[in-house]
Amino acid sequence: MIFIKARKKEKEILTKRFKDLTYEPLSNLLFEKSLEEIMEYSKQDLEQFLPTNYLSRPLFKTVLIQEIISLNKNMKGDFKLKLKLIYRKLDLHQFTLARLKSKRWDEVATGIVEINEMDLTEALPEMERLVSNKNFYIRSNAVATQLNLSNDKNLTVLANQKYPLSSWQQMKYLRIIKFLSTQDLVKIIYLLESDNVSVRIFGIRLVRYLGRVDWIAKLSEMYPTASLSEKVEILRSFNALNAESELNHVHNALYSDQEELCLIAAQTLENIGDENSQALLIQRLGMIQSFVLEKAILTSLATLNKDVFLNFVSTSTKASYLKIKNHLLDPVLSNV
Amino acid sequence: MYSLLFNILVDLLGIFFLFYSFSIIVFYLLTTVLSALEMRDHLRKNKFADYKDIITSPLAPSISIIAPAYNEASTVVQNVKSLLSLHYGKFEVILVNDGSKDDSINKLIENFQLVKTEYAYNEAITAKPVRGVYKSSNSSYSKLTVVDKENGGKADALNVGINISLNEIIACIDVDCILSSDSLTRMMRPFMEETNRQVIAVGGVIGVANNCDVKDGTVTQYRVPETLLGRFQVIEYFRSFLMGRMAWTRVNGLMLISGAFGFFKRDLVMKVGGYFPKTVGEDMELMVRMRRYMEENKLPYKVGFIPDPLCWTEVPESEQILSRQRNRWMRGTIETLQLHQKIRLNPEYGIMGMVSYPFWAIFEKMAPIFEVLGVIYTIAMIITGDISALYFIGLFIVIYFFSIMISSFSILYEEIAYNNYKSSKDLNKLIKTILIEPFVIHPKLMWWGLKGHWDFIKGKGGWGVMIRKGFDKATDKQKVTE
Questions:
Q1: Burial of B181 (0-12, 13-18, 19+ CB in 10 A)
Q2: Which of A249, A294, B110, B409 is most exposed, with the fewest beta carbons within 10 Å of its own?
Q3: Could you give the ipTM of this predicted complex?
Q4: A332 touches chain B (CB under 8 A)
């Protein structure tokens, strides 16, 4: 125990020391040298800024890369270019690329993260191989890197994914795609037509998250043959994008045997429903027993037309309706 | 004739105890290896997790934190404030006042500007009547819902909280627990990461807060407790959480998520009918029932566990309170195993039926009985002269050092992974505790366990007939009415 603890402590001390040793040279290079000056430096010139006796040590290189990446995340413009130049001139990219050959999955994944952060586009062919890796972390980071560096607006790397996408991966890719879509419109069609259901679901969510009303027609076309999870997501997207043209689908969903779908439909109607929807909501109420559904439907009705809602609940003797009415009329519960 | 029978009995018992001891050693060695592998993987995975994204991502699941409170007036306001300040986007806090006899509810009303509402409460899971649902008129506390109900015990209060909850994940916690500000983001990772299976629940480590400094809801300075009982529980928690539960997670056989800090998929909890209030081991019982549901419906699933220090609680340092707690834990274990005897060695229930259940039955439930029998057997052998002193001493030393080795490994895991107890004085105190634990504390634990068995036989606290009969299916709990 003492041996392992001592080794761990030694590594911690060395890491801290190396961090301190890289701080000043990197600051000098960033703030005192221009981009042109750094461009003219050779590897040996740059090494003079750093403690040369440690340069060959893998831990020092790891710490140096971490510091460069950390600065790169927090800086803009020329500073980013300077950092990438320093990274390349010191041949740290070779160290990063060598990580991809490691047998340890976390080493490979670390290499991929570094490639992504430092824009090593020459590693893209290697990423193509890794996007289908069976290890979740290697695969996730390789796809993220490919999305980030390839500038592929068709998102083909995602569309061709064979493995299911987890919410975690989707969260990560969403951040990248949001950034890509600020520069140019990304094409979601390939995701929506993917053979992988989780990719299609992500595509449907993207329509919503990116506010792409131009894809509502495509979602509408997909709806009749979609799976339950896809239908739920499509309805959510209709709701988020105020897709009033899709009321027919929403009305059909309201009559679904699937409670989840019916619930989402009721919530969607609260936002986009019309007079016809009010009648359908009341009709549907007569066919259900679920309290959760009753509450969702009455909430929709109350939002769409308060008079119709009050008239309906006042003529009904059902205890649950009265309970829901009191809830909906309580101002403190307006958002619950 | 009698002598022959006696000799056969002695030999059979000898073989049984040998086999039992050997099995324990094998199980603990396996636990050590599996937990080490799981911990290594967890630490490696952690390097690639950007938890900041979860806070604002629309893809992150929404959470309902449910905290039952009974006579907690002195701390409840501060504890609720601490829960409301957790770093997460989509969450609500449901404080269930379980018929407290003190002025908890008045303090909450006063401090959070609560008003009684016309909340449409739906009793999807049967529970004691709700007296009122309160919301704050101050929008700063919009995430808070306070439910006042008649006293029915922790499980009943949690069921009311589940009925009120609106979100995808429910987090059941003890209101006096200290939660780290990033606890929600970290606990959500397993729910979000899995690709092929549904993660039905995620458990977390409970740390010992006694004698530690706490600032802004996080333990800032770790110190081991002053008392031996407190220090023993630090080691026991390391063994249980960092070794035991990590190893079970490795093989997806985790049957217990602590009631003080557990996260569950709400839809599944609803399907199985929520907590069973007639057992004192409601946390383990719910977990087993949820797993049973998944197995019975042939749905791929996983139970996750996060070993990061995210939650702390004050452990009992008095023998009287600790003995009551252990008695309750033992009864809870017996009741759960009894309720779910159908899964025992039943291959239809996979690893839970074939490995986890037998382990709990033999090495947790029966441990006090077998150990006491073992001591009686050894004493009898010494008296009759059927055991050599050398053999006895040798065996004793081997077992003693084995127990020290296992406990040392648990400390080592903590040191390598988190290194919270930085002071060498603390480490020394923990090592001293390990050395004396088998002589000073372990016999007491066995005694309290035996008393738990006795109380179960007497029918204390539980729901006798129902528990003896057990559930035929995971959804049977829903048929149970008061």
A1: middle
A2: B110
A3: 0.91
A4: yes
